Amino acid sequence: MSLSFKNRIALHYMIATAIIMAVAFTAVYFVVKGVVYQNIDSDLSFEAEKHTEEIKVVGDSIKIKNKKEWEEREHREVQVNPVFIQILDKNGIFMDKSPNLKENELDYNEEANFGGSYNETLNNKPIRQIQLPIEENGKIKGFIVAAMPLEASQMVLLNLKNILLLVYLLLLASLYFISKYIAGRSIIPVKNVTETTNRITRNNLNERVALPQNKDELFDLSSGINDLLQRIENAMERERQFTSDASHELRTPLATLKGTLEVLVRKPRERGEYEEKIKFSLTEIDRMTATLEQLLLLARLDTSSKAKDESSVPLATVIDEILSRHKKPISEKKLSINFKNEIENETLVPQYFSNLILENIISNAVKYAKDATNIHISITQSNSNIICKVRDQGIGIKKEDLHNVFNNFFRSDALNHKNIAGNGLGLSIAKKAADAIDAKIEVASDFGQGTTFTITF
Ligand code: ADP
Prior knowledge:
Blueprint: H1 5-52, E1 55-58, E2 61-64, H2 67-76, E3 84-89, E4 94-97, E5 117-122, E6 125-136, E7 139-149, H3 151-186, H4 188-199, H5 217-266, H6 271-303, E8 312-314, H7 315-325, H8 327-332, E9 336-341, E10 348-350, H9 351-368, E11 374-382, E12 385-392, H10 426-436, E13 440-446, E14 450-456
Parallel strand pairs: 9-11
Antiparallel strand pairs: 1-2, 3-4, 3-7, 5-6, 6-7, 8-10, 11-12, 12-14, 13-14
Bound molecules: adenosine-5'-diphosphate (ADP).
Adenosine-5'-diphosphate is lined by residues 360, 364-365, 368, 392, 394-397, 405, 410-412, 422-428, 451.
């Protein structure tokens, strides 16, 4: 059975209260019962002791002294709560009784020989009875039994029980409705949240859940949902921007390609001219392919969760491999590479992601370095971290652009170095790869002097 949240709260609340009330009501009932019996018992023992004085013991027989007086008293007074008295010898054999007992007799109870009270019946009616020993010179001569009808008291207790039960049920029923109402009211903000979130689609992501007035758990829930919506909206906006930038990035070389080919077929040309234009077109296609590959890589880095079960290698190996892949541009630009590995105990790094990071950073250093300059690469260890620095003496990055270099498609001051090819995706990839292995990339630069990238693994 699935209960609504509202009914569940009401039910739990009711069960808890029902238990507490049941305990409280039972306690009330038993306390009252205890007090009632205590009063009867103390009355009975008072009567029994009083009548012990009016007994005469002759040899083995025990008799009530002024029986005549008793009988008269009985005729005179209306006895609302009569006390029955009976005398027994030490073996429990009947000796004498008060006249109000008529032809009835009270029972002897062996277990109560030394005092004690208990319930009995007389003529099928409940009575409370007490039995005290009659002693003479420290010897038990017999017993005096006093009894009182119990019917009235039992009636009172029964009434009390019924009233408590009735009140209990009534209270539970009203409690059910009250707690249902209160629970219903207290989850109104939850309903608001549900309604708003149901209304929100891709097209109205800017809508927000109304915040409740009290700063309680529901306020936290609502503002948590609002924060989530904000993050989703930002992500969607980034995605829109990325799609439009990516299509722009691909449309431009396609248009150039189309233009070149259209001009080429307009009239017959020399073989040399064909070759030149086709070569140009091929490089343009290569560039597009490279950009497409980078876009795919970025999308993959976005969706793949944190790197796991990845092969690990020493960082120096990764760097050596990258440098040997870039041998050609390095020698063309007459760059000298100064690579210092100061790590004593070889520590391993995840191969795939470290390669992505350093490939992009080192190829940038080579690309943006001025001819015949130095590129310094160093690996050091600080506590448990490996720190890799790549410093070039290149064109540098303007201060105001430093915080943008990791954004997709961002190229700093691109118009002033048109000859350096690029699409602004390399550092985005490096950043995403670093995020995937919890590494940190920092950049510092002196515009016109050179740039230093610091990667902390
Ligand atoms: P790109 O393909 O343009 O190199 P990146 O994402 O790799 O794209 O770099 C983004 C921008 O950061 C570059 O366009 C360039 O302006 C700047 N940049 C990156 N690395 C360097 C560097 N070593 N020296 C100077 N500028 C750099």
